[in-house]
Specification:
Chain lengths: ~300, ~300
């Protein structure tokens, strides 16, 4: 326009000032354009009052500071809070300190557990403005839910079958409290990564596992023994019964045979009793006498034996 | 001309500053208390653009959000003289900004007061309960939830009455043993595990013995049963045979006796037997005496 050296006419100077003010105003207004990523929604405030609770993703305009303010919240992502350990320790490979990782169980044992609480921002307005440190509140809440749940369950259940019950209790507890506190977060899942006894007693817990296995082994060995002898015994029992059946069969068959034979003889006997008796007698004598030593005594001349055959 | 312009400019600057200092933006996350010469004159608890007297009025802003406080971790003694370490946390809001301002003024002071109240209430509550009311598998005995609720409500009362604070929640983040007591806990845990392991092993022995004994007994039973059945069958066979013989032989008992006698000769006379036959025995008679006279029988 004009060089500072030459004096300017008053009219032109006033126009310059006005132009500068207009440009400054335009620049200020232009700074009101902002973008919202697809993962987020924005909340717009004017003089501290929430005017738009959910600005969708895209390019928008809103009053720049100091009149307006824009805050964004990632609503589609899920976030994770560690329980019983810290992500920073994990990255550096440091074991979590006992005060972080240990809980008391209902039977006054100490266990170490690791869990992850996955959550999302359910209410952007509450998340952004209702509390000072929503994530931190959730972290403490998760810790207290585990404390309450673990202090009612025995260690054996926590280490084995009770994990599901533990998670359910913790989840229910967190859900209830989060609803009451209104910090805009919603817990999606609670994942129990590990539950184990502290390092200095782990060997004793291991021994219980071994003992349980020993018990199962002894029982199964006994079962094997039982399964081995009982079929043999059943077979032997069958055999004895069958032997008896065979003997019975033989006995009655023999009886029948004898009876039949006798019946035939008897029929013959009835026809001619004397003849048969004589024949049977002689047959027997023929069979018996050849194999014995025989003496025939003559009753007439006083005892001289006539030897027939040696 | 020149000095007039300077005055005008000064006035404009003053006007802008005046307007600016007369305006007050109260954010949605805060309360604002307007004080005039140190005396509170207005309290704004809702957000928006407000007016105040320029220059003379001052603004004190207080956080309206849910605040988190973690009192220092402390050791307590239960009724049965067991030491427990409790880590608690509180969430709270400023409920009555004026009262808060008058009693604690700043956040640090509020947190210190809350921590002190929490600590004394927790101490009293835990001191009135045996340890197994805090940690128990018996739902009847378990009082942890009730104890915490009781402490919460007492701290809530005090905080509301004294400091204009509304306590939203008081919870135990963790319950543990003091470091020096942990060794004995581990000792006890080990002893308990050893006992359980021993029990498992003896249970195994017991059950194995039982199973084996049952198997042996079953075997004996099976064999005895079979023997009984076999004896019965044999007996039945004997009875059947006896009946068959009786039926057949009963018809001609004399003939049977005769035949049976002959059969027993067959058996009782062997090669060591010596038989003496009288020459006039029926067998020898024919040999000695020659053929019988015709017509004569035996």
């Amino acid at each position: 326009m004009s060089t500072p050296a030459t004096p300017r006419p008053p009219g032109r100077r006033r126009a310059t000032v006005a132009a500068l003010v207009v440009v400054a105003l335009l620049v200020w207004l232009a700074s009101g354009f902002y973008t919202v990523p697809t993962t987020s929604v924005a909340v717009a405030r004017r003089f501290g009052v929430i005017v738009d609770r959910a600005v969708p993703s895209g390019v928008h305009w809103w009053w720049p500071a100091p009149i307006g303010q824009i805050d964004r919240a990632e609503v589609t992502r899920s976030f994770t809070i560690p329980v019983g350990f810290r992500f920073t320790d994990e990255v550096r490979g440091i074991a979590p300190s006992p005060s972080i990782s240990r809980w008391l169980t209902g039977d006054t044992n100490i266990i170490q557990l690791r869990a992850k609480v996955n959550y999302r921002i359910a209410n952007p307005v509450a998340y952004l403005f209702a509390s000072e440190k929503p994530e931190e509140v959730l972290r403490f809440l998760a810790g207290s839910a585990f404390t309450e749940a673990a202090s009612g369950l025995p260690v054996d259940e926590l280490l084995t079958s009770g994990r599901l019950a533990l998670i359910e209790r913790v989840k229910a507890r967190i859900d209830r409290e989060l609803g009451d506190w209104g910090i805009g977060l919603e817990v999606l899942t609670v994942n129990l990564e590990s539950v184990e006894p502290p390092g200095n007693v782990i060997a004793s817990f291991q021994d219980v596992q071994n003992a349980r296995a020993d018990r199962e082994r002894l029982i199964s060995e006994a079962q094997t023994y039982s399964n081995g002898i009982l079929p043999v015994a059943r077979g032997e029992a069958d055999r004895r019964v069958n032997v008896a059946l065979a003997a019975e069969n033989k006995r009655t068959s023999a009886a029948h045979g004898d009876a039949e034979r006798f019946a035939k003889l008897a029929a013959e006997y009835r026809r001619s009793p004397q003849l048969l008796e004589e024949r049977l007698y002689l047959e027997t004598v023929e069979r018996v006498l050849p194999r014995v030593r025989r003496y025939v005594l003559d009753p007439g001349d006083g005892g001289v034996p006539i030897r027939i055959v040696e | 001309m020149k000095s007039r312009r300077i005055v005008l400019l000064l006035l404009a600057v003053l006007a802008v500053a005046g307007v600016a200092s007369a305006l007050l933006v109260v954010d949605t996350t805060e309360y604002a208390i307007v004080t005039r010469f140190g005396r509170p004159v207005r309290t704004y608890t809702t957000p928006g653009l407000r007016l105040k007297a320029p220059l003379v009025d001052q603004v004190i802003r207080l956080d309206a959000r849910l605040l988190l406080t973690e009192p220092p971790v402390a050791e307590y003694l239960t009724l049965d003289k067991k030491n427990v370490v409790a880590r608690s946390f509180l969430t709270w809001r400023i409920d009555d900004p004026l009262r808060y301002l008058q009693t604690v003024l700043i956040r640090d002071a509020a947190e210190a007061r809350l921590a002190a109240v929490t600590s004394s209430e927790l101490g009293a509550a835990l001191g009135s309960m045996p340890f197994d009311a805090l940690v128990s598998t018996d739902a009847e005995k378990m009082r942890l939830g009730a104890i915490v609720d009781q402490v919460e409500s007492r701290v809530r009362d005090t905080a509301a009455r004294e400091y204009g604070i509304r306590l939203v929640s008081l919870r135990l983040e963790r319950l543990s043993f003091p470091q020096q007591n942990e060794a004995s806990v581990f000792q006890r845990m080990r002893a308990e595990r050893d006992r359980i392991a021993r029990q498992f092993r003896s249970e195994g022995d017991e059950q194995a013995l039982k199973i084996k004994a049952e198997a042996d007994r079953e075997r004996a039973r099976l064999l005895a049963e079979a023997d009984r059945k076999a004896a019965e069958i044999r007996g039945q066979g004997e009875a059947d045979a006896a009946r068959i013989y009786a039926d057949a032989l009963g018809a001609d008992p004399d003939f049977y006796r005769f035949v049976r006698t002959l059969e027993s000769y067959d058996k009782i006379i062997d090669s060591n037997t010596t038989v003496v036959l009288p020459a006039d025995s029926p067998l020898m008679k024919s040999l000695v005496a020659g053929p019988p006279a015709p017509g004569a029988a035996h």
